[in-house]
Amino acid sequence: MALIELHEVCKSYFLPTYRVDVLRGIEFQVQEGEFVAIMGPSGSGKSTLLNIVGCLDRPTRGRYLLQGQDMGGKSDAELAQVRNQEIGFVFQSFNLLPRYPAWKNVELPLVYSGLSPAERKRRALQMLERFGLLDRATHTPAELSGGEQQRVAIARALINNPAIVLADEPTGNLDSRSGAEVLDIFQGLHRQGVTILLVTHEMEVARRAQRVITIRDGVCQDGCY
User: CB neighbours of 26 closer than 8 A, spacing ≥ 6?
Assistant: First the structure.
């Protein structure tokens, strides 16, 4: 059984005078432990697709299964729980809370876990140490470099040991050196068995992945097996 299955997934947005079809019958699978890059030009539907896989949005038509479960039949509350427990997110803009120190940002997914504040902090510090950021634990995002902020975001994405990590242009706001360091981290996670789905428009980034899926005009053109 595939970890991720999309069957004829379509996504349309309805405006007052016309309809915009963003995804048109997407069909692909991702196996557990795969590192998959999704490529395509701007407006091709890459981010919309990632939002559906991340349970941030629902398809207009079609089915999305995660670990064999049909996400279409779940309530908003159930989808929120899936996002918190099963999916780790890494964004181009980092999405860190500016007033919180690094360790507090990392522990956020654990807030509703039932763990004590002391245990949440211990795990967050342990995760920061894993990414070489323990000495930056009390620094706010404004006091961190772009590469450090993205490493904090990756630490946050992994704090709940999710089934899958979704990354949307994770190197887009980084210089070449920091971007390469972040991609090295993703490749290391892949070697450890983490399933990664990464959206990019850069072939140099996509080459780091195990498989490349190409989306154009809302249709899967290559790599969708």
Answer: 6, 8, 9, 10, 45, 49, 62, 215, 218, 219, 220, 224
